[in-house]
Amino acid sequence: MKNGAEEERKEYADKRREAKKIIRNTREKWIEEEMVKIEEEGRNRNSKKFYQMINKRKNNNEITVNNIKNKAGQVTENEEQTKTAWMEHFKELLTETPRNPYIETNNRERK
After folding, report:
1. What is the rounded CA–CA span in Å between residue 50 and residue 41?
2. Which residues form a coiled coil (predicted)?
3. R_g (Cα) of the chain, nearest Å
């Protein structure tokens, strides 16, 4: 009985691997076709269509960061916590005293 389950698991893994390979190849082929279309529009000097296609392609690859680590090292759970963590970070950066001794500040004299 255990042998049959292992065989089924191996068969499933093989099929899944094969499906991923097909999807990857199809995606690469589609991207290549899209790039050829964009290049053709560029060669034809159809700048409006050219830039529309570039922007459409570019926007599909944007990565968004929804959560970050706060000062305590904990990952933020919602948008409000993320905003607060960014505010604290930039407030620290902006209020930090300069490391260059030749930069004048209100509370330090020039050396």
Report:
1. 5
2. 2-29
3. 27
